[in-house]
């Protein structure tokens, strides 16, 4: 196998495996009524302060229509609620219910545990190299595939690791 084939195989399988593992770990009996995508909507809504639909759609890099459909289902299932702004009645903010916050923390714990498990297998040098390498990879994908708009929600990994 060539270097390019090996790298492609690693990237494709890593992405596939992460998606599969996240699905198995997140969608437990307790959360069987939602999808991994729903978990990501819950994550984007966040637990701190209510967020407007435009902000959440931007964080997820989806259209308002796509987000509206997801939020409708999450509201029906009791994870998210809409509240109208007191300052501007046209603005709708999303807020997690107790059930939604529980799902948020479940998702957060999965990611925290995953990172702890990975880091436990690496030396400090390997961890530094992994972060630098993944940062370059993330920069490449952001720079190559970002739509270039100011609203783009891609992180600047160079700032994260400095």
Structure described in brief:
With 162 residues, the protein is mainly α.
Query: Radius of gyration in whole Å, from Cα?
Result: 18 Å
Number of helices: 7
Name the poorly predicted regions. none
Taken from the alpha-carbon principal axes, the silhouette is: globular
Number of strands: 3
Average pLDDT level: 89
Global structural class: mainly alpha
Protein model, in words:
The chain starts with a helix and ends with a helix. Helix 2 packs across helix 3 (53-60) and helix 3 packs across helix 4. The chain is mainly alpha-helical and 162 residues long. A hairpin with a 7-residue loop joins strand 2 (80-84) and strand 3. The chain has helices spanning 3-26, 36-45, 53-60, 64-76, 98-120, 124-145, 157-161, and strands at 51-52, 80-84, 92-96. The chain is 65% helix and 7% strand. A three-stranded antiparallel β-sheet has the order 1-3-2. The mean pLDDT is 89. The longest helix is centred in the N-terminal third of the chain and has 24 residues, at 3-26. The protein has seven helices and three strands, in the order H-H-E-H-H-E-E-H-H-H.
């Amino acid at each position: 196998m060539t270097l390019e084939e090996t790298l492609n195989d690693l990237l494709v399988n890593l992405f596939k495996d992460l998606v599969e593992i996240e699905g198995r770990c997140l969608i437990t009996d307790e959360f069987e009524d939602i999808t991994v995508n729903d978990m990501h909507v819950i994550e984007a809504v966040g637990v701190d302060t209510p967020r407007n639909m435009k902000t959440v759609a931007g964080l997820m890099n989806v259209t308002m229509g796509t987000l509206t459909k997801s939020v409708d289902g999450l509201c029906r299932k009791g994870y998210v609620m809409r509240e109208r702004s007191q300052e501007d009645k046209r603005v709708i903010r999303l807020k997690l219910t107790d059930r939604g916050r529980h799902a948020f923390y479940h998702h957060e714990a999965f990611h925290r545990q995953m990172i702890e498990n990975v880091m436990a297998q690496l030396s400090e040098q390997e961890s530094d190299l992994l972060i630098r390498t993944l940062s370059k990879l993330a920069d490449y994908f952001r720079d190559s595939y970002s739509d270039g708009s100011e609203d783009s929600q891609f992180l600047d990994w160079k700032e994260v690791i400095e």
